[in-house]
Specification:
This protein is an alpha+beta fold and about 775 residues long. The protein contains 24 helices and 28 strands. The strands form seven sheets. The chain has a four-stranded antiparallel sheet, with no helix packed on it. The radius of gyration is 28 Å and the shape is elongated. It starts with about 20 loop residues before the first helix and ends with a helix.
Length: about 775
């Protein structure tokens, strides 16, 4: 039922370990339009489609929304699909009734949409997805550090997150596998299997019929090692989970199966269930290279390409010319009996194989999933038209549909430079990485603490938002930082929708942005074409190291749509540089579409941001003057030194305030700064600015003393070096040092009143300027 480990899988590279400035990384990450075009891998579907046309499709149609990507893996479930890009981003679409799409809701999605929480993991911890798996109604992702995240339906334990994990709406780490570097995952109808780099097999989920391989039929709610495999000396390479059975390939080309055997799907010559892995007998010299489980049949490919099948043949899925079940491996009937297949896959009740980019199919075809142009079942492998003859084709079978990826013949599987974790601003940020490297026990405790905090927000705070807002306990909880997965719920509440932007208005704005002519006015002084050109310049360098917002990257079209819709909403403002960082932060934490747009529009239409993005120089000067006054009050000696050398906030703090530090600090730190900004307003940004200056000054002073001790020549004055650091903050600025420093600063009541009054003036001006 779920061929989550089809041969389309290609690991995503980790890149080099060298760091570099953000501008350096931006230039290294830029890829020419020609190179991106050569790397694009068109994706096609047929059968039951989850696109704008709900009818069955008996011939291939291209999937819209992936036509700018290099796709390296596809996984198919009962009604949903995951696509993994070469950048390590995951796109999900299809049925979402059990949260299996990972978008945070149960809505079906008709076109591929990036999973925002996985993109956030990439941004925060520099971990990318290297493999995905789809089960009946659940999903899994293996990260580059070997961690596993699961989401969707979990009532039978298939998520591996404990008995309380009934369902997960967004990906959550499987804590039972922390410390175990997972290299492969497969998902069945109600169970999951994980393979470690040490060759051990772990399973969880429904245990009926012995499909977990633990010698019994008990359910397991956390991944449990299949001890019999390691005790017998088997080194597991990969696995495949079917409806109620499991197949495992071990080193040496050995295949072992276990679970339900009533249709002969285990290949042991009988129809008995097997509670533990049992070796399948094959003809001599048949070394298993690949194996895939359907609902009740199994397809196996040898190293030489020969394919054997066994199990249920009710719909002809065995391809042996009969509809009978087969309990021992048998070849296809006809000329393909000894053929060398490049790849083969099992859908729910159908089979698809590829030989030199030619497609051959058999089995159930009620929805056109064979791609033969009709809905007639077939019990022999028949050639069907390929989606494209312009490259190498790989296929994956789902429940009642099939997906194919066409790889350009002139390109390898991953052409674009692979995502390099070191290119993310968070990588050098010690605590973000250290949190992923801490001991298993400490990390489990941190996850448990995070889960408890999430529960408080979801159960006590959010349902009673207006009642609890301003209460001491809530403000204290808020000040400690909001859990990342809860920000998508809390930030919209904290920002509000004073502009009363409706979904219908947002749709109209998006449509207006699409249909407006290139020469139409888009902003105070630019045409649409000029505005798009400016946005296109900004997006590749917006969080450049994350490789999420540039051309051909996961969130490029999403952020561009949001920015252009806002230009249509506020043509008097247009697009102003810096907006892309605000939009990007919202997309990563709040999600795409209407919620992000509401937050974006309301943020830019209130407080100091209203002045900054109206480019009201007089008002901007007032805000920066108040910051300088806070600097004078809190750090008088350092402030005097700055004034002496004419280092003013206008040259180092403008971006800090205009982007709420999003342009200057690692994303995990930015998230916490935004939490407190939404609670305390601009005053918190002032405290953050003072803390940044204090921490950096101490660091520069320490380095200066070290150089003086070594009697090194000082080629630059202290002020000049410090000014350069302020313009480009170091990525290793520690979160704990920064927030400890923030705690040490208080803004005087008098100054805080002035800041509040100035922001109130901005809000009044914004109110009178509302459309």
């Amino acid at each position: 039922v779920a061929n989550s480990n089809a041969s389309i899988y290609t690991p995503v590279g980790q890149g080099n370990e060298e760091g570099g400035s953000r501008e350096d990384e931006s230039s290294k990450d830029r890829t020419s339009a020609e190179e991106r075009a050569q790397a694009v891998t068109p994706v096609y579907m047929w059968g039951r489609l989850w696109q704008s046309d709900p009818s069955d499709q008996t011939t291939p149609v291209q999937v819209q929304g992936l036509d700018h990507l290099s796709v390296v893996q596809i996984a198919c479930g009962k009604s949903h699909i995951l696509a993994l890009s070469s950048e390590g981003d995951v796109y999900a679409w299809g049925g979402g009734g059990d949260f299996q799409l990972g978008h945070g809701g149960k809505d079906d999605v008709i076109s591929p949409r990036p999973i925002q929480s996985l993109a956030r993991l990439k941004a925060l911890y520099s971990q990318v997805v290297v493999m995905v798996g789809c089960g009946g109604c659940h999903s899994a992702a293996v990260m580059s550090n070997g961690d596993v995240y699961t989401w969707g339906e979990g009532r039978d334990g298939q998520l591996g997150q404990g008995s309380k994990a009934q369902q997960r709406s967004v990906p959550r780490v499987v804590m039972g596998l922390l410390g175990t570097k997972v290299t492969h995952v497969s998902c069945g109808l109600h169970h999951s299997a994980f393979v470690s780099e040490k060759g051990d097999l772990y399973t969880c989920g429904k245990g009926k019929h012995g499909r977990l391989g633990h010698g019994n039929d008990r359910d397991h709610f956390v991944p449990t090692k299949v001890d019999s495999m390691s005790k017998r000396g088997f080194f597991v390479l990969r696995s495949s989970c079917g409806g109620s059975h499991t197949a495992v390939i071990a080193d040496g080309g050995v295949l072992l199966t276990f679970g339900r055997g009533t249709a002969g799907q285990l290949g042991h010559g009988d129809t008995k269930d097997e509670m533990e892995p049992r070796v399948v007998s094959f003809p001599s010299l048949f070394l298993v290279k690949d194996a895939h489980c359907g609902y009740a049949h199994t397809v196996v490919k040898a190293e030489g390409g020969q394919v054997l099948t066994f199990g249920s043949g009710e719909k002809g899925q065995l391809g042996n010319g009969t509809r009978a079940q087969q309990s021992v491996p048998c070849p296809f009937k006809g000329p393909l009996k000894e053929a060398g297949f490049d790849s083969v896959t099992a859908g729910y009740v159908h089979t698809v194989g590829v030989i030199k980019s030619k497609l051959y199919v058999c089995g159930w075809n009620a929805h056109g999933q064979l791609g033969s142009g009709d809905t007639t079942d077939t019990d022999v492998m028949e050639e069907v038209p390929v989606p494209s003859r312009k490259g190498e084709v790989t296929v994956v079978g789902g429940f009642d549909f099939t997906v194919a990826v066409v790889h350009p013949p002139t390109a390898s599987r991953v052409v674009l430079p692979p995502y390099s974790p070191s290119s993310s601003p968070s990588v050098a940020h010690g605590e973000a990485v250290a949190s992923r490297l801490m001991s298993k026990s400490l990390f489990v405790k941190e996850e448990e603490r995070l889960a408890e905090t999430e529960a408080i927000w979801k159960e006590k705070v959010i349902p009673n938002w207006h009642k609890e807002l301003g209460s001491r306990w809530m403000m204290t909880l808020w000040g400690k930082g909001i859990p990342p997965d809860v920000r998508r719920l809390v930030w919209p509440l904290a920002i509000g929708n004073g502009l009363q932007v409706t979904p219908d208005l947002y749709d109209l704005l998006r449509e207006r942005a699409k249909t407006a002519g290139d020469d139409e006015r888009f902003g105070p002084s630019m045409t649409k074409k000029e505005t798009i050109k400016l946005i296109d310049i900004d997006l590749p360098r917006t969080f450049a190291g994350l490789r999420l917002f540039g051309p051909g990257q996961a969130l490029h079209s999403v952020i561009k749509e949001l920015l252009l819709a806002h230009v249509c909403y506020r043509p008097d403002v247009g697009y102003v540089q810096g907006m892309s960082y605000i939009a990007a932060t919202l997309l990563l934490y709040v999600g795409a579409g209407y919620p992000a747009f509401v937050c974006f529009a309301n943020l830019l239409h209130s407080g100091h941001l209203f002045a900054f993005y109206r480019v009201d120089r007089a008002r901007i000067y007032e805000h920066l003057s108040l910051l300088e006054r806070a600097f004078n009050d809190s750090l008088p000696v350092l402030a005097q030194r700055f004034r002496k050398h004419d280092i003013r906030p206008s040259v180092y703090a403008y971006d800090w305030l205009a982007t709420l530090f999003s342009k200057s600090l690692p994303l995990d730190v930015v998230g916490r700064i935004w939490d407190n900004f939404l609670r305390d307003g601009e005053v918190f940004l002032f405290r953050t600015a003072l803390a940044v200056i204090k921490v950096l000054a101490a660091s520069v002073e320490e380095k200066e003393k070290e150089k003086e001790k070594e009697a090194e020549a000082m080629n630059e004055e202290w002020e000049e070096r410090f000014f350069k650091i302020l313009r480009r903050l170091p990525p290793d600025l520690r979160e704990s040092d920064l927030f400890d420093a923030i705690e040490g600063f208080t803004i005087s009541t008098r100054l805080e009143t002035k800041v509040g009054h100035l922001n109130e003036v901005e809000n009044i001006a914004a109110g009178s300027d509302t459309h």
